Amino acid sequence: MMTKALKGTMAAAAGVALGLTGVTAAQAQDEEAGILAAGNVVIEDDGIELYGTAGGEEKEPNASMIALDTGDGEYRTVYCIQLEVDLEEQYLHEERPWDDVPVEDLPKVLGVLLAGYDGTNAGELLEEAGLASDDYGDVTQDQLAYAATQSAIWSLTDGWTLDATDPTGDDVADEIVPALQAWLLENSAPVEEPEEPYFDYDATDAKVEGTTVGPFTVDTNIDSLSFEQPEGATVVDENGEELTTLTDGQVFSVKFDKAETASVTIITDIVEWTTPAGRTFVPVDADGADVEGQRLILAEEFTEEFYFEIPFEITVDEVPSESPKPQLPVTGSSLTTVATVGGAVLLAGVAAMVLMRRRAARADWGSDA
């Protein structure tokens, strides 16, 4: 006689797929999977040249106004956080957590960013700092605000010091950039790393009972994820009641319709996430490996739309159940019992965020950062 045993498995690559909405079929062909957000470097303006010292040596860096093109038609203002590392414009830049970025004092840098120029507020910033003017000569408000914010950041990350008598190559900037830098450093406070969106679930207590796989406990920083029941299974709570949303701490199980090998995928509705200022980006090659080059920090938030895909699989195995049933040495349980209950081990993979993103067309920009 043969007895069917149910074995629940969750694909090791189970995780999250991000789908950008409003993408045409042609654009969709250019979408690629990657970790977190990404974009191509754009030099929007050559900016203002700065004069000073770092590491005991005289330097003349350009505070070039840099942005990331994330593929949605908008440029996001970013800053360099390594004074003596080249900007690798030819590479895609991909988001990384602060722990993966070899730069100190990032909390202080983020504080300056939140107080400084985000790509849109030059006039308000100069007004607030008491440095507004009716005539900026050959430079613009944006160039001044960006240069001062960049210089303040380098002072934190690289010990950069502006020359006291000749800080820039422009008379107006000579007055405003050092003063605005000083104001930013005085009017900012350290801010810890902002969160990225995540969804995971704890499978520590999960097992198979009949055709039900679970329980799983949700771990997420997204307020609520709604979904439609997958075909071939029902997502239920601790009481066996159907669920239509998943929230942090929610306990759920997946109840398959039949005791047969099957797989289902929970697909959530589209949600929005605002990527905040302070996220860091690094250059990566075509294989997604980090490349030695300038690290960048995001100065303005932006919102993206995405959804999650969470796959589950249940496998039906046939196991012998002839009598007499041999006993296990420690527990005394029969092999048949182990095969039909305890042996139905649930294998759970780590839920990983995978974003579907469009690569913006690369342009051949040539300048120094």
TrEMBL record:
List where the protein spans the membrane: 335-355
Domain spans labelled Thioester = 78-187
* Keywords for this protein: Cell wall, Membrane, Peptidoglycan-anchor, Secreted, Signal, Transmembrane, Transmembrane helix
Residue span, Gram-positive cocci surface proteins LPxTG domain: 322-359
**Signal peptide start-end:** 1-28
**InterPro entries, from UniProt?**
LPXTG_anchor, Thioester_dom
Highest taxon listed in the record's lineage: Bacteria
Q: Is this entry keyworded Transmembrane?
A: yes
In terms of NCBIfam families, this protein maps to:
LPXTG_anchor
**Name used for this protein in its record:** Cys-Gln thioester bond-forming surface protein
